[in-house]
Amino acid sequence: MPDLFSPFKLKDVTLRNCTVMSPMTMYNSVDGKLDDYHVSYLGARAAGGFALIFGEQMAITPDGRTTTSCAGIWNDDQIEGHARVCRIVERMGAVPAIQLGHTGRKGSELPPHKGTNAEGTWKQLPPEHPDGWTCVAPSAIPYGGGGHIYPVHQLTREQIKDIHKSYADAARRALDAGYKWLEMHYAHGYLGASFFSPLANQRTDEYGGSVENRARFHLEALDAVREVWPEKYPLTMRLGSDDLNPKGTQFEDSIIAIRMMKEHGLDFADLSLGFNTDEMVNPPMNEVGFMIERTNRVRREVGITVGTSWNLGVPQNADRVIREELIDLVFLGRPALANPHWPIWAARELSHEDPFHLAPPDWAWWLRNFRGHAPSIGLPPSPPAAAPEAERRVA
Asked: What local confidence, expressed as pLDDT, does residue 63 receive?
């Protein structure tokens, strides 16, 4: 029976355990590049025991970013920063992973820590702002929620083909940088998610209407990437599998789409929500592991390895879903930001016989061979020594 700290193998890539640092947008790039900040931030999580390390969604075009402070991989000048990240992640014993995406109609924003709109949500900048641009989408329908009110451009067929080429070009750069796991971002209201959702996609051509047509954008993007991404490395995706709205993406449609994606070379499905509207019915954001049931259903019915995130940061919960073989990998976003050594801490919480095996060997040596007061280096107090046999009989 596997547990949270069992190795996981997919294609020619073996992860040292089942924990993944989920992609988290950090708004800390200049000209889309990764620098010392990202090397330090991502290297620390690799040293902390995570097995698979994502940075953030890497934009495949400049207008595919959320903000002008977001990272990307749309030109060759950006490769070296990614290569530095890959080198530190591998040196610390983890596998470097990249998520490629395009924000679509949710772009042209002000970084949220720099201000919000009157509703206290993300603030979209108008196209004429120095840090703004005209967003693109499957149909000329602004997102609407969170102040995303500015007109968007409906992509032509030719422009869709150009985006697919941008995916392939970004994948080639990712390979050159040293990544060994690639995920396509088709969730969270971004471009892939909006093509799949009837709320955002009201096209009447081959990219709109039926489930098969609404998934065409995804399949063609997968095909383009598969042409340049080696078979030995996993090709995966994060899908917005449900909009929680009767007029939006339905989970049943997602099962059909994932089955088609598997036929087009998909190796792993990372399940999330669509977020194509703020008008969700009974949103479950406070529920522990609320995506587990949906994700396990994909695992059973499609026959593909799966993972998910959402409220799995309590070690016992993360371990349980692996032990019960409900999912294959646990994705952790905010827990990884809060605690770069979450896997080591989780191993201690779960009474692993050697929690420090997840640290680099030199660090592990110091932590195993400590002298002095155990709690002062973060260790729990030692259990009381057992009394000699004679004393126990007397007692």
From this structure: 97
Nearest to 342 by CA among 8, 18, 1: 18
Indicate the Cα dihedral angle 270, 78, 26, 117, nearest 10°.
-100
- Which range among 156-165, 169-178, 378-387 shows the weakest confidence by mean pLDDT? 378-387
Residue range 8-394 in CATH 3.30.70.980: no
Q: How far is CA 148 from CA 106, 129, 223, 258, 285, in A?
A: 7, 14, 31, 29, 22
Residue 194 banded pLDDT, cuts 50, 70, 90:
very high
Q: pTM score, two decimals? A: 0.93
Cβ(116)–Cβ(123) under 8 Å?
yes
User: Looking at residue 385, what is its pLDDT?
Assistant: 45
What distances in angstroms separate CA 17 from CA 7, 53, 63, 330, 374, one per listed residue?
4, 12, 36, 10, 26
**pLDDT tens profile 49-85:** 999 999 999 999 999 999 999 999 999 999 999 999 9
Annotated domain spans of the chain: 8-394
Q: Which burial class, exposed, middle or buried, applies to 87 when counting CB atoms under 10 A from its CB (0-12, 13-18, 19+)?
A: middle
Residue of 179, 190, 207, 233 with catalytic role: 190
Q: Is 345 helix (H, G, I), strand (E, B) or coil?
A: helix
Amino acid present at 345: W
First to last CA, the chain: 41
27 catalytic? Reply is no
